[in-house]
Amino acid sequence: MSISAIKIRIAKNSSIVLLLVSVVLAAAAAWSIIKINSTVVSAVPVVVAKVNIEPHTVISTDMLEIQEYAFRLAKKGMFAKTENVVGKVNRTYIPAGTPVYIQQLATAGDNTLTTALSELKNPEYRAKSIPVEPIFGLDGRLKPGDRVDLIGAMRLPLKGQQTVVAQTFAKDVLVLEVMGDGGSMRGIIVAVTPQQAQEMDFVSRNGGHIGISLRPYQSGDTYTVPTTPESFMEKFLRQEGGGK
User: Fold this and answer.
1) What would the pLDDT profile of 20-55 be if each residue is shown by its tens digit?
2) Between the CA of residue 236 and those of 74, 228, 229, what are the distances in Å?
3) Distance, C-alpha 62 to centroid of its chain
């Protein structure tokens, strides 16, 4: 084979190699472009406020809609399904047309009293604190979720004189939180009705005291009459005499 023929063959082989390299590089570039476009263009569903949602609103289906967002625009904390938002209460204002974020909602476990109260599903409930020393708080063993009866004891004008009276005025009251721990217990926070909250203030602000008694998980209610010095002595004397 002549030198000229060898040169021609080498030139052809080089051209083939260059062509193959060019094809591989072009394919790689095309794949990269497709991948980038797919990332940018592909859409994901996002829950968006259909109307302006004022704070502390129970969110309903008609307040929401689903919009398609580019994948790169979807953020952590957004929702993909409306059922994950419906029934929740928002803590902040959510403008129409903006995504709903989990941080805007009152959710279980976010450790706010308002959330704990709202989760009871009773709009009548209010949170109220009671000072309780450890010894009167069952040695500090009360826990959130326990239920108690509230007993008010104070001096009232009866028969022309100030008489100490004790009476259970609220039953089956839920303990929301315990202030302090064990031996350092300072009080409890309970869920009560506005009427019960009013009575609690009446007792505590008129020199009285509020006591608590723990209820079992399954308990019945027994009617109680007010305890006064006269009623206590009468019962005491009956017991002393063998009565009931």
Assistant:
1) 656 666 666 655 655 555 444 578 999 999 999 998
2) 73, 12, 10
3) 23
pLDDT band at residue 221 using 50, 70 and 90 as cut-offs: confident
Domains of the chain with CATH codes: 44-106 (3.90.1210.10), 134-221 (no CATH)
The fraction of the chain above a pLDDT of 90, given in percent, is 38
- Letter for the amino acid at 32? S
C-beta of residue 97 within 8 angstroms of C-beta of residue 65: no
Mean per-residue pLDDT, 61-66: 95
User: Do residues 83 and 66 touch, judged by C-beta distance below 8 A?
Assistant: no
